[in-house]
Amino acid sequence: MGRRTLVFGSFVVDIMARAPHLPVPGETVKGNGFKMGPGGKGFNQAVAAFKAGAKVTLATKLGTDSFSDIALNTMKKLGMETGRVFRTDREDTGCALILVGEDSSQNEIVVVPGAGLSITEQEVDSLKEVIQDCEYVLMQLETNLDAVERVAEYAAESGTRVILNPAPAADLPEGLWKRIDVITPNEVEAEYYTGIPVCSEADAARAADWFHERGIGEVIITMADRGAFLSSASGKGEFVSAFSVEAVDTTGAGDAFCGGLLAAVSEGKDWKDAVVFASATAALSVQKIGTAPSMPDRREIEAFLDNY
């Protein structure tokens, strides 16, 4: 187990329906299955990292409704610490409505962050010592942006490296760019920020340069089942192919990747090996239904890598 890490981000309850195909506007489709369970980018990534072997603290915010029990019960069952989970009775716990088309394994998602958008300055301030004690902090953009900025500020002060998964894509203040050490957009998010459609390795390299120009050391652009482009400001970029597996549900694959990446780098793996480990984590996750519940454990990841 590596050094302590912090995942700062959202929790939402995933409400998922599966259907033969995704409906077009105005169409009603008869579904084949329904599931409700824990999710949210922050929560998913923390669970993925924890199950992959990382020493993880999750900081998130919940309401006081019945949905909040889903987060706390899941964390307790896994053995994760819950001391940095904030609560409010002014906002509901977040939720996500997810549709999965069985013909394509693709999904459509609407996220309502709820309490996750109300993280206060005082709550972030209470994390200062945790941040100082961590080598990495991993964040996304499903929580309020001022809280993300404040965490990044404390990380910069203490020499803690910031990994940002910039999803869902949103305009970032100039000051935040300077505090990001590692960024992990997918091809859609990379195009949002850079204006460069990422359809090839050459496109990914040009997009990576855009991020490097903003002072970001490591850029990892994920390109779904094709793989990921890894680029370091200090050297040449390279493409890491994805593992070929039969996908059942791609929801949460990006979160599995980010959690696996965090676990790997916290143990001191180099970036290439960390991307391979993250890719294996994602490949295993898409073979199960759901998000947080689909995250593989360390033994599964190692066995998968041994087989390849």
Largest sheet: 9 strands, mixed
Number of strands: 13
Radius of gyration of CA atoms, rounded to a whole number: 18 Å
Low-confidence stretches: none
Termini separation comes to 23 Å
Number of helices: 11
Structural class: alpha/beta
- Looking at the structure, what is the overall shape? globular
Strand order of the largest sheet: 5-4-1-8-9-10-11-12-13
DSSP strand content: 15-25%
> Overall pLDDT, averaged?
95
Taken in chain order, the helices and strands follow as EEEHEHEEEHHEHEHEHHEEEHHH
Residues in helices, as a percent range: 25-40%
State the assembly state of the protein chains.
Answer: single chain
Protein traits:
308 residues, alpha/beta, 9-stranded mixed sheet, 4-stranded mixed sheet, 11 helices, 13 strands
Structure, explained:
This protein has 308 residues and is an alpha/beta fold. It has helices at 41-51, 66-78, 121-125, 128-132, 145-158, 174-177, 187-194, 201-213, 253-266, 271-285, 298-307; strands spanning 5-8, 12-19, 33-39, 56-62, 85-87, 93-101, 107-114, 136-139, 161-164, 182-183, 218-222, 227-232, 238-241. Strands 5-4-1-8-9-10-11-12-13 form a nine-stranded mixed sheet, sandwiched between helices. Strands 3-2-6-7 form a four-stranded mixed sheet. Helix 9 (253-266) runs antiparallel to helix 10. It starts with a strand and ends with a helix.
